[in-house]
Amino acid sequence: MTTSRDCEHCEGPMPITARPHARFCRPACRAAAHREARTIPAELTSRPLWIRRTSRKVPVAVDGSVASSTDPASWSR
Known about the structure:
By secondary structure, the chain is mainly alpha-helical. Helices cover 19% and strands 5% of the residues.
């Protein structure tokens, strides 16, 4: 008995050699599905001011200028 399974991302057919527990037809579909799952929460997107940080945890504005984590005037809009 053969069952037809589809990829969770592109909804295309799974390869014949796919393991029984496989969810995606190829690595690109797996990566795309995980990228879609990483969304910014609505609580944050509703706020008009943004600040980000570097890998050394230095606060910077979206344009790359130095920002202050406590001074809203230095945040990006």
